[in-house]
Structure formats: C-alpha cells, structure tokens
Specification:
Layout lengths: L4 E9 L11 E7 L7 E2 L16 E8 L5 E8 L8 E10 L4 E11 L9 E4 L3 E4 L4 E9 L11 E7 L2 E2 L3 E3 L11 E8 L5 E8 L8 E15 L11 H11 E16 L9 E4 L9 E10 L11 E7 L8 E2 L14 E9 L4 E8 L8 E10 L4 E11 L9 E4 L4 H9 L5 H11 L1 E8 L12 E7 L7 E3 L14 E8 L5 E8 L4 E9 L11 E6 L9 E2 L4 H6 L6 E8 L8 E6 L8 E11 L5 E13 L9 E4 L3 E7 L5 E7 L6 E10 L11 E7 L2 E2 L3 E2 L15 E9 L4 E8 L8 E10 L4 E11 L9 E5 L33 H8 L2 E10 L11 E6 L9 E3 L13 E9 L6 E6 L8 E10 L4 E11 L9 E5 L4 E4 L3 E10 L11 E7 L2 E2 L3 E3 L11 E9 L4 E8 L8 E10 L5 E10 L10 E5 L1 E2 L2 E2 L3 E10 L11 E7 L2 E2 L3 E2 L14 E10 ...
Antiparallel strand pairs: 1-4, 1-6, 2-3, 2-5, 5-8, 6-7, 7-9, 10-14, 10-16, 11-12, 11-13, 11-15, 15-18, 16-17, 19-22, 19-24, 20-21, 20-23, 23-26, 24-25, 27-30, 28-29, 28-31, 32-35, 32-37, 33-34, 33-36, 36-39, 37-38, 38-40, 40-41, 42-46, 42-48, 43-44, 43-45, 43-47, 47-50, 48-49, 51-54, 51-56, ...
Amino acid sequence: MLKNVSYHISVKTGDIPGASSDSKVFIKLYGEKADSSKEPLLVSDNDLGNYFERGRVDEFTLDTMDIGKINRILIGHDNVGLRSGWFLASVQITVPVQGRQYMFPCNRWLDKDEADGRVEVEVYPSEIVPIEKLINYEVSVVTGDVRAAGTNAKVFMQIYGETGKTELIILENRSNNFERGATDIFKREAADVGKIYKIRIGHDGKGIGDGWFLESVTLKRLATKTKESDKKKKKKKKSDEEEEEETTAEEVMEVYTFVAHRWLAKDEGDKELVVELVPDGESALEENTYEVHVLTGNVWGAGTDANVFLSIYGVGRGDTGERQLKRSNNLNKFEKGQVDVFTIKAIDLGELKKLRIRHDNSGASPSWFLERVEIVDLKESTTYYFPCQRWLAVEEDDGQIVRELVPVDEAFVKKDSENDGQSLATLGLEQKAKSTTYTVKVKTGDKKNAGTDANVFITLYGSKDDTGIVSLKASKINKNKFERGKVDEFTVESVDIGDLKKIKIGHDNKVVPYEITVYTSDIFGAGTDADVFIVLYGSDGICTQQKSLCLNKREQRMYFERNSVNQFIVELEDVGDIIEKIRIGHKGGGLNSGWHLDRVTIRRLLPNGKGSETVTFPCERWLAKSEDDGEIVRELVPSDIFTEKLMKDGTLKQIEEEVEDPLEVHTYKISVFTGDIYGAGTDANVFLNIYGDLGDTGERKLSKSETNFNKFERGQEDTFTIQAVDLGILYKIKIRHDNSMFSPDWFLEKVEILDETTEESFVFLCERWLSKKKEDKKIERTLYEQSYDGERNSLDDSSVSLSSQDSNANVKETKKSSLVKAAEKGSLIPYHITVTTGTEYDSSTDSRVFIIIMGPQKVQTERLWLDLPEGKDEFADGSVEKFSVWGLDVGEIKKVEVGHDGATPESCWLVEELTIVVPTKGVMYNFVCKCWLARDKGDGLTSRILNILDADCVNVGLKILYEVTVVTGDIESGGTDASIFMTVFGSNGNTEEMQLEKNGDRFERGQEDSFIMEIADIAPLRKMRIRMDGKGTRPHWFLERIILKNLSNQEVATFTYGEWLSKLKNAKGSLVCEMPAVINGEQMMEDTTYTLQVKTSDVGGAGTDANVSLILFGENGDSGTLALKESNKSNKFERNQMDEFNFSDMLSLGDLCKVRIWHDNKGIAPGWHLEYIDVMDSAMDKTFRFQCDRWLAKGEDDGQLIRELACANNDILELKERTSYEIVTVTSDREDAETKENIWIILEGKLGRSKEFLMENSSKKRRFERGATDTFQFSSKNVGEIAAICVGHCPKDGKKSSAKADVFWHVQEIVITEMELCNKYFFRCNVKIPLRYKRRDYKVFECAKVTESFASKARSLVPVKYETIVVTGFEKGAGTDANVFITIFGLNGDSGKRALKQKFRNLFERGKTNRFYLETLDMGELKKVRIEHDNSGLAPGWLVERVEITNSATGVTTIFPCGKWLDENRGDGLIWRELFPRY
C-alpha cells in the first residue's frame, strides 16, 4: 500500500450550454515506467452531488503503482445515459509524491453528435509545474474496546520529526470510522519530517457522543537507506554504473507504534480532547505539564468573551499545537485585571522559544488587552515570562487578533511592575527584534459579485514553521474589505518561520440570517399585491443588497393583507452590530398596489449565539401613489430594541430599551428646472438618487409635482418633496429617465435641493440633454454640487488608475493627479498599443491581455493591462484594438512581453500583429507575430517575449507631454458637445489639428478640465488655433482660456479668448479663434493688420469669378484659411486689375516665406492667371512680394488650381563665399573632465572641409574647466551643411614630451552656429579625448541635431514637382471609387490636402498603380504622408499597398509602405492612414 502513488485528478467541465454529462467517465495514465489500467472516475473527493456538471470541477484520487513521469492521458466516457455528450475543458493531475503538477488542456466535445464524434481523447501535458514534495504515511488507529469508546467527531493528527512537522492531517474516509474495538487504516500524504519523535492526536468535540477511547496509533512509512558503495567501481561502462547506483539505495519500511490507552473526552479522565504520544520503547522524551498564567490588562474594556487559543514552541522539539484555553481557575475567564491559570500537557519541549496566542473574535465584546503570559515548566520548575501589553482586537492597535510572543528575562517584568508602565516601548523592541512583519496585499478580481463579506483567513507557510490561521480583519486601505476590483492591505507578524514557501487562503462563507416581520395596518385598503423590497443600513453607510421579500407573484398575493403579520427569514450581508435605518418600498404595478405599513421588526441572533435582539422600525404611513405624499419608498429609523439574553444560570434575561438619538428624518424640497429650448420637455418617468456624506436616498421616482399637473415641460420649474434619513452635506445626484412615452428627450437645466430641516440649499447644474438621440446619447447624468471640488468620477465609478486609462482622463485641478506628477518626474510615459487579432478559427479571446515593456538591465514596466472599452468583451477575430497605457520609462526598449491571464484552454488567442508607439521617443515598433498564445495550441505558452530586433522600427517624430487645462466660462449654456479641434504653433513648426476629446462631461459650464496631451516638439510656443465644427445639440461654446504646461520643463503658456465660438452668439459668427501665447506675462506675437494686393495678369481670359482663398506662412506659423471676399473693387479678379483686401485683428506671422493660394473653379470661365501678390504687415511695416505669373486653371499649364508661391524678398540673401562660425564647447561636470591644454577642431561640410581651428587655453583666460561652457569665433570659407567634426587634444607648448598618456578632456557637447544664416548644429559627444602630440589622433562626431533658421528655410523654398505613385493591393475588393486625398509632410512644411484626380480615368483599381504630379515649394526631407478617402461611391473600402514619392529636382524617392485597409468595416475602421518612410 505504501509503494502506491496517489494521483489527484481535477476534471473541469466546460462552461458552455449542454456541457454536462451523465455518462461514466474513465481515465488512463501513460507514464515513463508503466501505464495504469482504465480506471472509472466513480467517487469524487469534493462530492458536488451530480458529477461532470457545466462549469464545475470534480476531484478524484487514483491510487495505483508508481508509473513515473506522466507522458499523456486517455480520458473518455461510455456514452450511456440520456445526456451523454460531454464538453471537457481540462484535466489537472497533482502528484505530491513526485512533487509535480500536470496541466492537460482539452477544450473539446466528447460526443457522438459533435465535432469528430469521438468519445475518448488522448491529451498531452501543456505544462508541468514543480510543487512541494510529500511522502506516503500509513496510519492505523485502534479504538479501545470499552463502552461508548467510539466517536463521530472530526479526528486530526500531526506528526513531528527531526526535520520539522507535517500540516494538520484529517483522518476520515467514507466508512464509519472510530467505532468501538475497530482498527481504521488511512493512507495520507504529508511532508517528510525525518525520524519521528512524537505525534499529536485529538478531535474537535463536535457531534453527539464525541468522547473517544483511543487505544493506540501505528505509523508506517518507506525510508531510503543508502549503502556505502566502492568508489573504484565507477570506471565501468555507463550501463553498469546505473545498475550499481540502483543497488546502493534501498527502501526500508519504518514502523512507529504509539500507545495511548486513554479517554479523549470532555467528561472522562483529565477532560482533554488532545494528547501527545511518543514512539513506544525507544524515546527518551517524556510528557511534561505546563501551567499557563494569562494576565489580562488593567485598561478599560480589556476583558474578552471570545474563545482563546494558545500554542507553545520549544527550541528544538516542536510545539504543543493549538490548544483552546477552556478550563480556568475562574468561572468567567479573561476579565479585566484577572489572572487565569490553565494546564497544558505535552511532550517535553525543552527550552521555550515563543508562543502564539489568538482569539476567534466571537462574543459580544471580543477585544482583549493582554498584559502577559507566564508559563511554568513543572518538570524543570522554571518560569518563562512572555510580555504582550497590546490589544488583540480588530478595532484597536494594528487590528490583529493573533500575537506571537517571545520570552524575556524576569528582571524586565519585575522592573516594569515597579516603575509602572515605563518600559512599554523597550519590551516592544525585544519582541520586534525577533519577529518579522509581513504586509499582505489581497486583490479582489474585477468581476461581477467578486467581493465577499465573509471572514477571510490566511496561513503563511515558511521553511521552518507556519503562522497558523490568521484572520484578515483590519484592512489598512478600505473600510469595506474584499470589494470588487479593490486591493486590501493587512499586517501579519510572526516569529521566525523561515523563507516563505506557500500560502493558504479561504473564507468562512458568512452571511447573516435576519428575521424580518412586516405588520400591515388595520385600515381600509391597507394590503398590497406589489413586490415589496427592503435594504438594511449599518453604520458608516454599509448596506445590504436590495432584497425582495416575496419569491414570486403567488407569494405577493398571499402576503401583506390588511392587518396581517408576515415573517420572512432572509440571508443578507452583515451590516454590523447596529442597524441605523432601513429602506422599504414596493415597485407599484398591479391593481391595488397602495400599502399602509404599520411597522417592521428585525430580529437577529447575538454574535455569540446566546440570545437575540429585535429592532422595531415604526412607519404608520401609506406607501401609495394616490395617498399621502405619493411616495412608495420610505426610510425608517429604529424606535426601540428588545434583547433576550441567555444567562449563565440558564434563565432568559429580557431587556427593552429605546434607541438613543436615532438618525433624524429630513425633508428635502427638490426643484427641477427644465430648459427653455425647443423640445426640452419630457413625458418619461424621472428617477433621482441624492448622495450625501452620510449615505444616499436610493433611487426615487419623481412622481407628484407640487407646482404643475403636467411635469417637466419646457421652461418650467417642478417641485417635489422627499423624506429621507439625514444625508449630511449633499455633494452629487444621479438623475435619469426611463425613455418611455411619446417624446422622452429632456433638456435639464438644473436641480436645486433645499434641506428644509437645516435650511441649506444645494445647486446641481446640468444644461444638457438626457436623450437617446442627442448629444452623447445618455439618459442618465451624475451631477456634482456647484461648489464641490473633490474627485469627480462621472463616467464610471472607478478611480483614475495608472495602468490603463485614456491619456486624457479628467483630473480636477484641486487634487493634482498622480499621473501628472509622474509625468512631470518623467518616470511614467504613455505607450500607444495596437493589437490585431488573427482571423483563423478560434483566434479570439476574452481573457485580460497584458504587455510588459523591457529596457536594458532588467528595467521593465509592470504588467500593463490592455482592458477593452465598455461594450467590448473580447479581442474578436480580425479586430484591431487600440490602447493608451502609462508605464515606466524603460529607456531604450529591448524586448516586449505580450500575454493574457487565461488559465483555461478556451482562452486561446492568435496575435497577428502588435504595434507600439512611444511618443516621447518618437518611435514606432511593429511586430508581425502571427503566433498563438494558448495552453492547447502551438507550444502551450500564454505569453511570449518579442525581441525588438525583430520589429520594424519607424521614426514618427518626437512628442512632448503637456498638461492641457481648458476653462469654460461660467455663463448660461456655456458648455458644448460639439467637436473641438486645436492646432498649436511654435517657432519650430506647428502641430496638426488635434481633437480635444469630450470624454463624457468635459467643456461644461464653469469647469476647468485638465488632461495630458502629446504635442510635437515645436517650443517656444507662439499661438493656438481652436476650431469648432458647430455641430451637435449644443453647438455654442464660451471658451474662457486654455493653459498648456510643458511637463518636462514646467513652462506654462496661457491662451486667453473669453468669447463665444458660435455662428449665432459671436458677432462675426466665427467658429475659429486664434490666441497668442502668453508666457511669463509676455505676449509672444504682435497684433497686426494684413493688407493684401492681388494683381491679375494682363493676359487674354486672365480674370475669374471663382472664390479665391489663401494661407500665409511665416516664421510664427500660418494664418489659417483667408477667403478673399471683400475687395475694394466691386468685380474682383478682372484682367490687369489690382484688388486690395484688409484683414484686421490678425497675429503677425513675422517674416513671411510662402503663400498657398487656390480657387474652387466655380462660375463661367473660372481659369485665373495671377501675376503677383503683395502682403503688407502693419506691425512690422514691411511688404512681402509673392511672384506667380502662372495659370490656376484646369485647362492651362499643368492643370492645377492651387499654387504655392515663395517670397521674392528672400532671393536677396546671396550666399557669400566667406562666413564665420561660432563654436561653443561644454566640458562635462565630473572630476577629471577639465584640461589645461589646447583643443583643435575641423568641420566637415557638404561643400568641403574647413581648416583647423585651434581653441587655445591661456593662464590669463582659463578654458575647458569642469562644467564650463566656452565660446570661440572663427572666420572661414563656407563649408555648407556640417555633417561631422573632428576634435583633437594637443599640448599648448607644442612639445612632444608634454603629451602625457593619462591626460584627458571630457567633453559633453559641442554646438556650432553658422553666423550668416544662423543655422545651429549640435554634436552630442560625452567622451574622453586623450592628449596627443600627433594630429592623427582625434575623435569624429556626427551631427546629432540641426535647428535650421527661418532665413535658411525660406531660401530653400523653390517650386518642386513631386511624382506621387499610389499602389492598390491585390486582394479581392481592394479597389475604391471614393475620392482620394493626400497630404505630404516634410521638414519644411506640408503640401496641404490635395485631391488625387485624373480626367476620365478609373483610378485605384485592384492591383493597379496610379501616378500623379503635385507641384509645391520644396518640403525638404519627407517625414510622413496622410492618405484618406471620403467614403463615397458603392464600395469605398480600399486596400493601399504603398505610396512612393519622388522629388523630381533631386531624384530622391521616398517609399511609404501601408498594406492596410482604409475601410469602415474592416480592422480598426479608419478611412485614413498616416504612413512613415522606410529607407
């Protein structure tokens, strides 16, 4: 029997319809050494009644010979029975004797009528996990042959050996054990404890006839004895060597006998239920008796009624196990200032090292202040002192109800009693020095009903010992523990348990029964058939779920009749010792739903089970729509409490007491203002819940308006009265309607609530629609009190978590969000992740997906969870999901791990592609994965590490994080739900137009909304343009100002407008505004008036009647589109005519560099020949000439209607042969950085190489000191664009002997400015340059960054033709008939949005290549392309293979690969793409 191995088999049935089976299931194991026979799984260990039911896990134990490591299993059923088909999810086999756990994913039907019709299947393990290794023990227990010797109680035992102890072993099996004169044999797996020196055996004293006469216990186990083998034989061949090793190990059966021959009974012998025994015959250990003195403290409330348990630990000889301290010398144990004496018998422990004492928190007042414990070893007659001087209480100290104490010298205790309480801290220190504090964090899952109100227990197991059962009572973080999605933190202290090996955690399944008695009044029509419900409230707002008292309609008709008393026993969450209020109501409906309730009483048992208390809640009012105030929900407070207590002498003591100062019931007057706009009123039912800091009213229907018969009509005020138990300070309301009746849409202006009892009034502004058709289509709103400045989580009630959130999550200014702080420090940065799921069968998953981003040297982010937005519950086949997450900045990314938490085989997932954009680094990584993450597919892994070298790395342009704060004016209907777009301009370029997300409730009246945005690196900022689309139900917006704060250098720019953006409310009807940046009180742009003179050429047919528009570009950005409408001539743009246009209130763009001008080709003969444009800037007093001399006409020249014109003023800047260079060196700020010698430098440019510039050091003017910045100027020939520099370090006296080997100059950075055009070149060095006599030894640095001056950029603006090739993909349906547009972005600006059209040609067909020519001013190096279509035509979906653009002036071709659909119905549904170049 001992050589057999137990295989513990957990069989999980799938959670899909029809998965259950009634057939007989069998299993066969195939091992390395042998195979088992086919074994039917008949009797389960966890006995769930009906086996193999949907979603259940059944556990079986198979006891068979050792077959070695399991290679595979065969599992199936006999296909008999009504519902024989079975969907098997997985099998897990645990083999403690091998120390292994095997996982077999199956995830398939075993059914004649499903899939391949097989009813048995072979499965291979997907993973083998090492677990704690155990060995087999055979335990024989002999019950004595005396009268009533047998027991039905639960018997347990624990084995102690030289290397440790086993866990508690429960001895029970299916037969009736421990009968008189019987021998029961058990096989149990437990830790190998070496040579056994004692056992402890006992029972829990439960059940009828629990007394037990134990005769003896025999333990058997196999031990391995090793013979010494001859070392010389080792030189034999391999096979002999193996044989020889087999002969050296020999298994020997060890047998230990323990004779008890005694009662374990409450009423026999020494009345103990536990006994410790030593092996018969050989042991030198004897039983010892310990006298335990427990001193309860002398502070108020120190005593306890709870049950107290004690374990005593010896230095080398184990412990006593946990013993309940039952029989004291005092009748009432553990009272204040009392000493209780108990006797514990155990095998001699030697010197004592610690004790563990705990209570179970039961009884009326369980809190206990323990002064100390003294233990007298009666054999040695020595006394040990264990001081505690702490509470064991959930409400006191650190909330623990278990303490581990260590002995101190008697002198300490005596000293303490003399100078009374002086050395409390020192003793605490002795204890602390020997104990370890563990912080236990428990995270409850984020699933429906995941939380529990039961008592949760944990045990930590170490290599030396365990902590015993610790009750997790006092969470440091949350008042209400173990709630959905929350993390709770607890403290567990223990003395020396070694390294942690494992933990056990569980709960006691606790809900509390309440007896609820409902008294219906004795008046006419008092009864009801409606559905009555109740909610109980404890202190601190803890409440139960809403519970209906009747299970069905039949019960509703039976109960709540006139003058009836109905009693219900309901299991509800425990709301604590005091019920502060109840909410009772009914749901209306039915013929006679009106109900007159007299009172409600609630009875529940006292915590210790010794009696009960009954609380009465008087009502004596109608709950009826047609009576009284029309309310059908009431809140009731208790009037009196009736307690029945069972006294110690067996009598019942009855106490009746009135409730002192119960919560007051307040009357709230609610005024609801409906907006005065068309269609504002509603006929739907409106519901309101009011929240205060003391609780909430629950949802109440606003049914009876006191001011109007027809409620909620346009422009009217409706008043309602609600009575509720005092809510304290009101801070938010939830208001909704049920979208019923003919016109449910409702525009709510505001709600005002007056607390009539305290005469405080609260205002909740709304000014929004509650409608399924308008705005954000929501019919429920959460409104906060006007002056409330706490956290507002209006979208959902989840706090702003750092792991995953839209990078724009709303953060109130008053509490600076942790995200902003982290972003300011630069520790957290955003990552944008796009995940494409494959399209094969079963590719999708509903598991939670995570990603970990790894940098060099083990720096990595935490698990960043990619949580799907609401409404999506899976990564569907072929879907593209986008996430923005915040994670640690890991520096240069080396690897990425992607995975999911799906433990079940049905959570398999096929990842097609993964894209990660790191905006703060300006890079995008694209991984083409095409790999399964699944237990039962491929290699069985659910997470993989991808190497960054396997990714396509694309440069997407660096972004800087800004905190954006948008302030909406506090003006009636100042809020908007239109779309808002922002463009920011700086002296280094401008951003594209970015949408400011509404995100539920931003941009509302009087609000400041802060969020984080990524903005291109264009600082210093110059101006901002805000555009609204003027759509939506509230198209007007009063914009006060916008503040941008650069989170990397804390620079703040303010943009103030203070005006409406609206077609109606703005004097000019403008939906666009431009605001100059104000930085440190200085406006960054001047106001100006632009006067434009437009000269039409003197050529036949030169004039046009089309509408002409233009954009001006200058060093401070662009002007936006200016329509040329109001000319000084009545008929504009006639042949040889000069038209003048004035634009006042503009921001000066500084020096202009180009104009983009176009017309819309309307009217008769719209072709236009433009000679030139002059632009006058009144602030600069300067005129800029833009020469054109070309047609803008479909039928002339190159057929373009749009031209870009360069500024003629810039041609004056002729490049001179000679120029001068300013060279700035920055010496590193470190110890050995400086030098006293000279430095030389040579510039390598596109036009040639400069001479050597010598930067000299002299004693008068010291250069190159630590951390110094030195500036030099040299005149030279112009070498053009600088590509690299050579830097050397030479002795200043020019002597060879001075060039010592160990002299260096450590240079941080060198910046070179060409003084003619003021272009700056940056060289990041950060190296040591050694001192060398010869000029051959130098370091070369390549240019890291160039900032091109405006003058230089303007010079390069010459017209260029760009040949643009668009290649359409070859898949079915790849072509499009929609109108296609392209925008090309370069270093020097963009092309504007250009239509790709050709006359009479069918463009963008499947597999075809189309070619277009666009003329613009030279854009420099091309950075990206935006390609889009307008989704028009029959099948607008379009698969773009790639775009190629060739600059015809330089012949350089840039390729922009795409390979993605622009289709609303595929992938991510976008009809535009940004493409980046591959070189």
